[in-house]
Amino acid sequence: MNEPHINRRVFLLATAATGAGLAVGTGASPASAAAVPGGFPDYTYRRTLLEPSKLKYNPTGEIIFPCIRGTAGRVASPLGKYYLYYAPHDAPGGICLAYGDSLEGPFTEYPTNPLVKNVWSPHYSVSHVSSPHVLWNEDVKEMWLYFHGENTTTRLARSKDGITFTYDKVVLSSSMMPAGTTETSYARVFQHDLPTRNARYVMLFMLNNTTNHRDICWGWSPDGRSWTFDQTPLVRHSDVGAVNIGGPHLLTRNGSAYVVYNSDKESGGNLLITEVGNDFGRRDHLGLFHDSLSGAPDNGRSAAPSFGTEGGVPYMVYEAGERLAGAIAVARG
To answer: Which in 76, 111, 196, 292 has the greatest CB count within 10 A?
Structure first.
């Protein structure tokens, strides 16, 4: 495995940027004008898609962790071309859905949210469920929902239509990680072949421990249900000069794989990027991926990105604003 490497030029932009983002109707800041590592698009805010105050299901006044999925060729008679999953975090949480025909919106709230609640007898009864990530599982032609509740446990539910889910099993818990682990949550799962590990899927997730510094960890699986987890972090907070990192997403480009993740607002509130390589053997920390807007809706924090393409145009749907006080927004590359 290669030794960790930080692109200092780009990393300094990430650590120095404290919200000098691209404002709507203005030119780019020096940070946002820099080339994005890996040749990825420079995403620019377009509009806010969901605000808690405008939602019928709004138990806590906050929503987090968007996941955007196309329905074409996957769901019979879908409500829209795109399904946008999200959730409140604080108790009781609840896995929610909005639907629309464009990645730039508008999106309509599903009228009987939440799809999944914090009590699902006889499988569990917890304080909250949150952080929905839906994978289109091509192998079985189903939407697979990964979500946490409590913060120590990630679960799997499965659906043919992306709305009605059947409970499957626990796929990750803090007991599967080193002693002292206190949280294993905010998981996203991707189809990514790792032949040397007999794996077809990878999971990225956030781990916290008794030091109260959050890192990005990972695991691999032949079927998306039974997992093996690396016992050392994929990206440590200290690797990138942050107090906490989370919200990881896997991207592939030009024959390599990258992990995009957010730093906490104390550490800049931006999205950072690390190249891990197709075999997850690299650890090249490349620095700034997306500079959060200093003004609304980001207010110095962008997090938990989900990516899609419409008509050849790349989009990023993300959590915009201070944690537990934000909205869901979309940016275009």
So the answer is: 292
Burial class (CB in 10 A: 0-12, 13-18, 19+), 102: middle
Confidence of residue 323 (pLDDT cuts 50, 70, 90): confident
Q: Which domain holds residue 198?
A: 5-332
CA nearest 144: which of 156, 154, 153? 156
Mean of pLDDT over the chain: 91
CATH number at residue 55: 2.115.10.20
Total of domains in the chain: 1
Q: How many residues does the chain have?
A: 333
Distance CA 255, CA 277 (A): 8
**What contacts 192, CB < 8 A, 6 or more positions away?**
199, 200, 201, 202, 250, 252, 257
Q: Write out 72-106 in H/E/C secondary structure.
A: CCCCCCCCCCEEEEEECCCCCECEEEEEECCCCCC
pLDDT in tens, 67-80: 999 999 999 999 99
Q: Are 230 and 219 in contact (CB under 8 A)?
A: yes
- pTM of this structure: 0.90
Q: Check whether the bond before 92 is cis (ω within 30° of 0).
A: yes
Q: Residue 173's closest CA among 201, 149, 198?
A: 149
CA distance 145 to 157: 5
